[in-house]
């Protein structure tokens, strides 16, 4: 938006124009210094504590890659080993070749991608309803194009796939199908599931189905954030595109208060509650574990940056268990020089410019499903491709974790440090 200056009426004093210019110049300098002092010295002016919810802002997607698929001419033995390992189960398309920039990330992501796309306990039709609805919500053209042929193979018609984009209000759907679409909408918008929706799912699903339904939406959200931020384009062979005549709309009630008891009780025994909760579904837990393992043990990001991103996305999703563990017993954020209250306050709470860019990245991925061009450019001034990929993976993985914790009702301990009271 252009800004226009309002100038005073001229006077007869021949020096007035020069004095006016000097005064304006001084005022501009004063304002700039004031802003810089606020940014660098930590003045307590916070315009917005949390971003607006996902799906509430104008859509922005890349028409060309930010991270181009790694060409075969650049493959090393490490890259070829991953292609050989995964090609029997996956097509080696643009998404795979993009992740191939970080071979360890391929090993981390592929097991859960395959599990949620084909090996979970869900009926195939239910699975595709959840994946396509989430791909539409996240506006992932890559995932939509990938899954339309799969959905067609399990019996969904072109008309029904258009109705998936319309959403749960479309007259096409039976009651349980409508519930599945509501599940995707609620997790995407609120990072949680309403009691009414959960009860409707329980009427047909066992524990494994319930967990897999939640994880299918959450993993599709993770993949959408990766592919959107990297600018992964549909493969040339993938002909399906979004139905262009369907307006983007997400209609979800406000989130209910956080659960005060678990929906999926953790197993008894040692270890933190999230692991014991996921262990109720061992096959799912094994397939998923590599993603968090990459973020916490393999990623090249320093602990300070990693925990800054994790805590900000946990705050945005209002995942109190995640917040408590990364402030406290698991990650000990303060030991890395982080102040949790300032993380909750957001990018305007006195951070340096590089830290601000991390916080904005977490906010933008949460709200928009993609890092903006400006934030990407600022981070890329100091990060290489591997580190940029790891920034997105850190936020996307802990968006998945946050949504899962909220939906399954994983409870903090009485001694945990909960959310700060910030204004």
Which terms would index this structure?
423 residues, 18 helices, 57% helix, globular
In brief:
The protein has 423 residues and is an all-alpha fold.
Task: Describe the model.
- There is one protein chain.
- The protein is globular.
- Helix 5 (124-137) packs parallel to helix 10, helix 13 runs antiparallel to helix 14 and helix 16 (353-368) runs antiparallel to helix 17.
- It is built from 18 helices and no strands.
- The protein has helices at residues 16-41, 77-86, 94-99, 103-119, 124-137, 141-153, 158-166, 175-190, 195-202, 207-230, 273-278, 282-298, 303-316, 320-327, 340-345, 353-368, 373-380, 385-408.
- Residues 1-47 have low confidence and may be disordered.
- The protein starts with 15 loop residues before the first helix and ends in a 15-residue tail after the last helix.
- It has 423 residues and is mainly alpha-helical.
- The protein is 57% helix and 0% strand.
* Broad structural category: mainly alpha
What ranges have pLDDT less than 50 throughout 5 or more consecutive residues? 1-47
**Beta-strand content bin:** under 5%
Helicity range = 55-70%
* Main sheet summary: none
CA(first)-CA(last) distance: 29 Å
Number of strands: 0
Count helical runs: 18
How would you state the average pLDDT, rounded?
A: 90
The radius of gyration computed from the alpha-carbon positions, rounded to a whole number of angstroms, is 23 Å
The coarse overall form would be globular
How would you spell out the order of helices and strands? Answer: HHHHHHHHHHHHHHHHHH
């Amino acid at each position: 938006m252009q800004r226009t200056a309002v100038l005073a009426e001229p006077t007869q004093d021949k020096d007035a124009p020069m004095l006016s210019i000097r005064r304006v110049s001084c005022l501009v300098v004063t304002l700039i210094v004031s802003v810089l002092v606020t940014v660098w010295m930590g003045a307590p002016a916070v315009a917005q504590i949390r971003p607006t919810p996902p799906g509430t802002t104008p859509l922005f997607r890349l028409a060309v890659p930010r991270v181009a698929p790694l060409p075969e001419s650049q493959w090393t033995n490490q890259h070829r080993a991953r292609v050989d390992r995964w090609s029997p189960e996956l097509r080696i398309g643009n998404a795979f070749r993009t992740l191939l920039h970080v071979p360890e990330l391929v090993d981390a992501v592929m097991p859960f991608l395959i599990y949620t796309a084909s090996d979970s306990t869900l009926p195939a039709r239910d699975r595709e309803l959840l994946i396509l609805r989430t791909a539409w919500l996240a506006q992932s053209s890559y995932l939509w194009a990938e899954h339309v042929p799969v959905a067609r193979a399990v019996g969904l018609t072109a008309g029904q796939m258009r109705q998936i984009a319309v959403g749960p209000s479309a007259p096409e759907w039976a009651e349980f199908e409508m519930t599945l679409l509501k599940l995707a909408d609620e997790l995407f918008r609120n990072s949680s599931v309403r009691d009414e929706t959960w009860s409707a799912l329980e009427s047909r699903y066992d524990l494994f189905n319930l967990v897999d339904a939640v994880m299918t939406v959450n993993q599709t959200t993770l993949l959408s954030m990766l592919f959107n931020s990297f600018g992964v384009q549909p493969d040339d062979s993938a002909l399906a595109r979004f139905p262009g005549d369907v307006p983007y709309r997400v209609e979800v009630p406000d989130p209910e208060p956080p659960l005060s008891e678990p929906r999926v009780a953790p197993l008894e025994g040692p270890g933190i509650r999230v692991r014991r909760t996921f262990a109720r579904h061992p096959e799912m837990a094994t397939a998923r574990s590599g993603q968090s393992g990459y973020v916490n043990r393999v990623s090249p990001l320093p602990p300070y940056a990693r925990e800054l991103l994790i805590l900000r996305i946990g705050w945005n999703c209002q995942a109190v268990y995640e917040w408590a563990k990364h402030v406290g017993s698991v990650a000990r954020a303060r030991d890395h020089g982080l102040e949790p209250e300032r993380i909750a306050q957001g990018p305007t709470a006195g951070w340096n410019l590089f830290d601000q860019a991390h916080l904005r990245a977490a906010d933008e991925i949460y709200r928009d499903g993609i890092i903006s061009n400006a934030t990407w450019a600022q981070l890329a001034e100091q990060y290489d491709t591997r580190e940029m990929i790891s920034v997105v993976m850190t936020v996307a993985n802990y968006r998945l974790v946050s949504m899962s914790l909220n939906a399954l009702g994983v409870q903090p301990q009485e001694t945990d440090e909960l959310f700060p009271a910030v204004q």
